[in-house]
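I'm stuck. Please check this protein.
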Amino acid sequence: MARRCEEEYTCPVEATIRLIGGKYKAVILWHLMQGALRYSALHRALPRATDKMLTQQLRELEADGLVHRTVYPVVPPRTEYTLTAFGRSLAPILDALCDWGSDYLTEKDKTPWGEV
């Protein structure tokens, strides 16, 4: 699938953030690492996301080649989302974000960050 934008980046981090830096993109990718999910399951996993925002984030992830959308021709239509091979290549990054977040949540109540 073609990329949404062919931009020039000044830094590799900028390119990565451009792909996964949406409001819910990293969380969507994290949930899809567990396997295929239907739209309704993703929405339940992201209860604060509006339908409009979730749809927008999924479309951007699909346009960037990170997520594959399959529509099954049944009534009512069933849509499933899975990670592409390119999307699965983000697993180490998402794992590191999860580990860091877990440490942060564990430690934030013990000591304010930055204190020695």
